[in-house]
Sequence to fold (297 residues):
Amino acid sequence: MHESTLHRLFPSAKFDEPLKRYTAWKIGGPADALLEPRSVDELIEAAEKAREHDVPVTILGGGTNVLVRDGGIRGLTIRLAKSLTNVEVEGTRVTADAGVLYPVLANTTAGRSLAGLEFATGIPGTVGGAVYMNAGAYGSETTEVLDWADVFRDHEVVRMKNEDLDLSYRHSALHENPGWVVLRAGYTLTSGDASELKARIKEFRTQRMNGSPNRPSCGSTFKRPPGDFPGRVIEAAGLKGTRVGRIEVSPVHANYLVNLGGGTAEEAIELIELVRQRVRERLGIELEPEVRVIGEP
Ligand SMILES: Cc1cc2nc3c(=O)[nH]c(=O)nc-3n(C[C@H](O)[C@H](O)[C@H](O)COP(=O)(O)OP(=O)(O)OC[C@H]3O[C@@H](n4cnc5c(N)ncnc54)[C@H](O)[C@@H]3O)c2cc1C
Fold:
């Protein structure tokens, strides 16, 4: 696609924008066009226009569970974190736009004496990304509190119920439907005591700070293998501290592959494959990546 066509179609986008500025791993080549829509209408209009002109569309939330490859992303990338951030509370029902950050939602709901989303404090992505991944922590996950999500699909917004979203461990129906976009989500919580909920959030945060490396990463790189933990398995395979270029298996928590500064997506992919191969050879365990790899090599 010629650059001037993208300029004409999406005049408020940023062009040739390095995506490493928008990912937790601080890795990622340029987006041809990066749009941060200020409203759901602007998002839908851009998505429709893109489809009409055969421009591929990629959705980015907080960029906390993606590995954007070094060649970047062709066509239009729509980033929802920091735009689309409205939260509405009515009794125990909460509606949050796709771009609301999960830790913010945890704080907001706890402050309104609503229990159920305290676990979200440890998950740095957006509501949209959390539905996509069925994100979870500390023994809870999104599906336990999510009622519905408004999903833009095939020219219309469909309110999909929890049971139609096919939510399971770090999976949703959106994985099989790359054109779908989560616009907002509805949760039902329970009444609680604000100060107790805030104390719980604080406790979760302290646990996090003590157990996580203080370097750019995508959090957990691999999913839990049956009956085990990827961090334990990788450590048992003797891989803590293993490096490819500037990406390292963290000595603090082996399921975090950290960027030591200047690391590339190709190095991260090589290290992911190396870890999988060694764990398979040494322990006979198959590790599946949790991180979503997108973009061009
Ligand atoms: C330090 C750290 C700790 C973490 N801890 C946890 C944890 O405890 N538990 C956990 O589950 N995860 C954890 N994660 C991973 C990550 O935060 C979650 O997977 C999160 O839900 C991803 O949300 P995001 O908005 O950043 O999505 P992104 O990384 O931007 O995108 C992830 C995928 O979702 C898609 N997507 C995003 N938004 C939308 C949307 N609106 N509509 C359609 N598709 C969309 C993207 O296209 C992409 O395929 C951690 C990450 C980091 C960096």
About this structure: DSSP finds seven helices and 18 strands in the chain. The chain has a mean pLDDT of 97.
